[in-house]
Amino acid sequence: ERGHGPYQPHEPGYGLYQPGYSPYDDQIPDPKSRTLAIQNAKAYLLKSSTTSGLNLYDHLANMLTKILDEQPRNAVDIIENISKDVKWAHFQKKMDTLRDEHEILPTFEAAEKRKALFLKANGEGDEELEEEIGETPLPNVMETAFYFEQAGIGLSKDESYHIFLALKKLISVQPIQTCRFWGKILGLEMNYIIAEVQYHEGEEEEETEEEAVTEEGGKGVGEVEDEEEEKEKDEPPKSTYKPPPVIPKEENGTGANKYVYFVCNEPGKPWVKLPPVTPAQIVCARKIKKFFTGRLDAPVVSFPPFPGNEANYLRAQIARISAGTQISPIGFYQFAEEEDEEEEVEGGRDTYEENPDFQPLSVAEMVDSLSAWVHNVQSILKQGRCVWLNPLQKTEEEEENEEEEKAEEPDELPQELQQGIGPPLLTPLSEDEGIQNMPAWTAQPSTNLIPQYAVAVLQSNRWPGAYAFASGKKFDNIYFGWGHKYSPENHAPALPPPVQAEYPSGPEITEMRDPTVEEELAFKAAREEALAAAEEEEDEEGAEEDEEEDD
């Protein structure tokens, strides 16, 4: 039978751990066997662990050395703690006596990154600060964080203050007229801190020149291809498929591109400007659901294919969230009187102004009814724009060119391109559609214990992470989340399009079948008969000509 130790019954050393047995008894008369048993026991204790690389022999020796050096009271009661201390000492980083390797803590690295936020610009003095206090576009992030903190919403005070300083640095670099902390979108690797800004008039850079250059280049290549195709004699059949017209993006400062957005992963890192959003990106973003990685250049692998990278997807989600969750107390904004007198513009009004005679409602009134809140951002239509555009509408030059060709145009637009009508600006939240048995918004006071100092807080159930508060004449919106819309059902990706129909088969493209052996023999026989008949005719004609010559 096998023993319960490292030795077999026939090996020296077997039974050393058995009770009542001592290797120093006279039961082992041979000293060689006793020496061998001791060597085997020591070899077992010196066997290294596959996990930590330590061995039990050295560990026990170090424990005994520590106990004899320190001589603690009741050593048997703390033997486990001594064992842990000895093990922990092995994994401590040993410093060289000549050159110490200083360990860089994560807190120190974070402090170095944010060090630039706390430095004043060159020549910045107290006098200049006093002059800029009334005109600065810098938002009071700490005040907004205080109000949201009443409802348990927001970031830590340290991070809020770092974002405060990062926005100040952004304003000092860019020609910004208004600035607001939009929120924070979480990512798998890094997060996005988002700033919503508006440039001064005439300061915003227009990015249409590069697009125009690329379009011109594309036309040149297409013309060359057309010339090559004309030279070909046998042209293949051309496809009759016409792609849907490309819907142009809204101009900067209007619709979904009314604001410009800057993002950074952490306060202290450089701000990056997001590109304008296009209708195609918004339409595709509604059909997919992807987590953000935190890298703006990361590809978005999805179906349907997204037209852009993560920076474009982030910009599309910001536009969708803003259109559905940016709200304000009713009466705070009003339409200008000039617009009231003028006729309504297509798509509804898109501008408003603050109401100087605004009288805020009480917290109880703002919590009891959603009619006390209105949307202050234009809704996005199914087309991907805030203002509908007819893609088949042509300019005067195109109409003149097509009058000669007399091209037939469809009377009705496809369903996807038909005009959509969304809710107008400053629509009350009470008109928002619910989500099955759940309302679109949840309103509650920040506290029920001290209602006279409570703050009205609204939470969006359609976009989890979107919040708004109102206290007197102060209100603000913020978003903290993953950038995903709530769906009561599991996300179902769009199905691929139906399989394209085969080309209609006809005699011009049908391949001839191979003839059989009988048909080949019959063809050869008919061919030989035809040749023989032709030779006979030639001979007869030749004989007739000879007779005429003799006559």
Task: Briefly summarize what is shown.
This protein has a domain at 141-202 and 245-335 and 349-390 and 420-481. The chain is 34% helix and 11% strand.
Any key phrases for this structure?
11% strand, 551 residues, single chain, 8-stranded mixed β-sheet, two-stranded antiparallel ribbon, 12 strands, alpha+beta
Blueprint (SSEs and pairs):
Layout lengths: L30 H15 L10 H15 L8 H12 L15 H8 L12 H7 L8 H9 L7 H17 L2 E10 L6 E8 L8 H24 L28 E5 L7 E2 L5 H7 L24 H16 L1 E3 L3 E2 L2 H5 L11 E2 L8 H6 L4 E3 L20 H10 L35 E5 L10 E5 L5 E6 L2 E8 L35 H34 L1
Parallel strand pairs: 1-12
Antiparallel strand pairs: 1-2, 2-3, 3-4, 5-8, 6-7, 9-10, 10-11, 11-12
Helix pairs in contact: 2-3
Pfam families: Radial_spoke
Organism: Stercorarius parasiticus (Parasitic jaeger)
Protein name: RSH4A protein
Beta-strand percentage range = 5-15%
**Helical percentage:** 25-40%
Shape: flat
| Structural class by secondary-structure content | alpha+beta
Reported for the largest beta sheet, the result is: 8 strands, mixed
Taking pLDDT < 50 over at least 5 consecutive residues as the criterion, the unreliable ranges are 207-224, 404-411
Integer average pLDDT: 82
What is the gyration radius calculated from CA atoms? 42 Å
Order of helices and strands: HHHHHHHEEHEEHHEEHEHEHEEEEH
Strand order of the largest sheet: 4-3-2-1-12-11-10-9
Taking the alpha carbons of the first and last residues, their distance comes to 136 Å
Q: What's the count of strands?
A: 12
How many individual helices?
A: 14
